[in-house]
Amino acid sequence: xxxxxxxxxxxxxxxxxxxxxxxxxxxxxxxxxxxxxxxxxxxxxxxxxxxxxxxxxxxxxxxxxxxxxxxxxxxxxxxxxxxxxxxxxxxxxxxxxxxxxxxxxxxxxxxxxxxxxxxxxxxxxxxxxxxxxxxxxxxxxxxxxxxxxxxxxxxxxxxxxxxxxxxxxxxxxxxxxxxxxxxxxxxxxxxxxxxxxxxxxxxxxxxxxxxxxxxxxxxxxxxxxxxxxxxxxxxxxxxxxxxxxxxxxxxxxxxxxxxxxxxxxxxxxxxxxxxxxxxxxxxxxxxxxxxxxxxxxxxxxxxxxxxxxxxxxxxxxxxxxxxxxxxxxxxxxxxxxxxxxxxxxxxxxxxxxxxxxxxxxxxxxxxxxxxxxxxxxxxxxxxxxxxxxxxxxxxxxxxxxxxxxxxxxxxxxxxxxxxxxxxxxxxxxxxxxxxxxxxxxxxxxxxxxxxxxxxxxxxxxxxxxxxxxxxxxxxxxxxxxxxxxxxxxxxxxxxxxxxxxxxxxxxxxxxxxxxxxxxxxxxxxxxxxxxxxxxxxxxxxxxxxxxxxxxxxxxxxxxxxxxxxxxxxxxxxxxxxxxxxxxxxxxxxxxxxxxxxxxxxxxxxxxxxxxxxxxxxxxxxxxxxxxxxxxxxxxxxxxxxxxxxxxxxxxxxxxxxxxxxxxxxxxxxxxxxxxxxxxxxxxxxxxxxxxxxxxxxxxxxxxxxxxxxxxxxxxxxxxxxxxxxxxxxxxxxxxxxxxxxxxxxxxxxxxxxxxxxxxxxxxxxxxxxxxxxxxxxxxxxxxxxxxxxxxxxxxxxxxxxxxxxxxxxxxxxxxxxxxxxxxxxxxxxxxxxxxxxxxxxxxxxxxxxxxxxxxxxxxxxxxxxxxxxxxxxxxxxxxxxxxxxxxxxxxxxxxxxxxxxxxxxxxxxxxxxxxxxxxxxxxxxxxxxxxxxxxxxxxxxxxxxxxxxxxxxxxxxxxxxxxxxxxxxxxxxxxxxxxxxxxxxxxxxxxxxxxxxxxxxxxxxxxxxxxxxxxxxxxxxxxxxxxxxxxxxxxxxxxxxxxxxxxxxxx
Length: 1051
What we know:
It is a single chain. By secondary structure, the protein is mostly helical. Among the domains are: 89 residues, no CATH class; 171 residues, Up-down Bundle (Methane Monooxygenase Hydroxylase, Chain G, domain 1), CATH 1.20.58. It has 48 helices and five strands.
């Protein structure tokens, strides 16, 4: 294997010592002389290659070009190339691979030709590795084919499956031509089908040396390829085969195929097949053909129960299901704790999926139904376990109101049992009571999100429309979803329980409870109070309505109460779910620096950067660009992850998977790598970094579509310049589907499935999407065009008019083509019916204005469009843009003017929380200003070249452009004034007391005049004294954010 990645490859041992020493010391001029002398004497082309490679390390362009010529001659030659020469050339060309030199057109074919003549050499495998690490699938497949043939009768079976895997990967890759794609698909499938047939029909016991399907990875590879290229009927038929079928593999102790087959069958809706497989698999354990609880996990039980209810003969299937389940229940004592819980959950799942008539045929006792009984039994066994609420919340949400009420009011209080008369101060009993109380409060909150707890009321009573269309069945009050009366009661009760735990008498009880449930119950209580307060603030499943500001619909003071409770709890309990929820809330309020302080300790690992980073970094440059001014680049962790994952053409560790014959891993790694390269997170990081650098006048070393995948930049240099997104973004075309993989699984979720999770309506705007990513990418391309500056050493050909005209013509042609492409793409995306659901109103306005600016600029690049007939259309464009800028400017004025009046704190908070809208106002005005400046500069350049006056724009057109520029400048002036007013408002005294007044009421307010929610919050956080540090941190974070905005360029 060539070692150019780590330095120059070692020369042959036959090379004389003087030349080897000069080579290892990188004395290239001496190497050139010595190699030339040796070549003249021996005529060995190896010495000529040494000379050419050494010359390429010198500064002369001529010698570097000689290397390209030599490589081209070697590729065109018909004979078998020398592998040592190939490695020398590959090392010398490594800076140009992926750019001027395409591996698949040069070194890949050279290595394939060498292997063709030397297939049994140990170096042949190294050639395959080299092609794979450059993701040259065409030549990798050719090498693997040759290795398979060379070792057809050998003991090593890997080459056959390497050949099959690479043939399959090539057939689904863009590297494969359309004409050959079906050939490779058929080749991979037929090869595996032949091996499967021989395996099934073999009468003798198979040996590990047989070239058939013996190992689990090989069998799973067969089914993966069959699923991709075969028919559904063949797949279903093969699953039933005695040796290679799902059940046959289970008997051998292989579970992977069984799980993959169930997932595939579920996508096809083959419920009878799923039921049959699950029943047979579970019976294997009962019969002793596998370990008793080998497949006894909840994934199997859920699919088994679900398939039984949907099977063709569901009555018989459900009866058989209950029989199998009873057998496992009878053997439950033999199971480990994990499998005991799985059996209990399986019983719960079965109870909830059986028809009501089967559960309660007499229709008696609607409250104490079998469903409630099974929930009670499960809670009695596992109420102290950490995951119990997540285990049962889906089932509780399905209960009728009568069942839910019976569970909450009658069943839960009985679970801790009676206190012992002999030990009335039993700490364990008290701990159990606290744990059950926390569970009760979580379930009560869960039920407020369920529609069955409400009954409809007439929409009009006595001729008056009713604001609350329901009546809550729990409290009997008029309500909407959720019931605010119940939420208030939950907050008050949770606060009371929390206060009990903070009491000196019971504070010692907390360690006992933690030892029982592995978590502080105060965390659950704080989450219940926090989420209930968020709902009481006005947040609903349909909110935020991204068509208007969030602060028009909700009460900021109540949300701040929730934030205060959660922040107070975080200081007591370090919990990542709570931390993540607070990060979202602080970003919602514009406290980006404080959110960043909470984000950093989470230490997001490399493998989940792509899915978790959007939770903090999405829109971060529009919230607080000042964060990018820190000593450590803000995007360093994300950039480092992409650098390590995408710097190579191939998936990371792909050769390790080949070496260990992990064929399913190879396919999964290839799929993951492809998705990572087209991830919305990549575009997000790229756009956020570039927008932040432009905010502070930083230079961008690359255009947005020219970011390198490898190259001459070291990682420290790239991180220092925030250029760590190492992908060819030029490969991202308008037809590329960008993938969103944001993971919200770490958020605490107390909601039912009847509505969205809490984080869904705590976002600043719609999450990452293919549509928004493409719009942002196109806008960056447009800005690159407008702000492009030629290199400092570029000298325009002023003394040669003909050459100057030719250069100008090329410039116009290129500009016209780029603008036309951007315009068409922007219009295509913005005209999609659902585009408004992917953008905030301010973002929609910004991208719409850019889509109008592009044709305005286009009109100045072609003489045929710079004539009188262009004036009306230009006037229409400029009028629309100026009107939009005027509306935006008026919005800034309405937001800024009240800052000096009453309610300073609350008004300022609503403005600070809306900084992304301000950022889009600034971006829109700057886009208009850049566009008009570019048109004016372009017109001046063309007028200098064309002295006849036939080309230039008409005066009326120039006037329109200047009027638009003036409107943009006025908007930017207002934007600058907006920041100044914000800074002045934050510099006012009394902010600390004002913040606490907003959350806990004024200091001189009598306690009996405070509302019950404020009292509850105050009891939890320790009154005003407990809120001072939190209020100080929030105010300081706002000031840091506004200070950063004050440094942003507004021109």
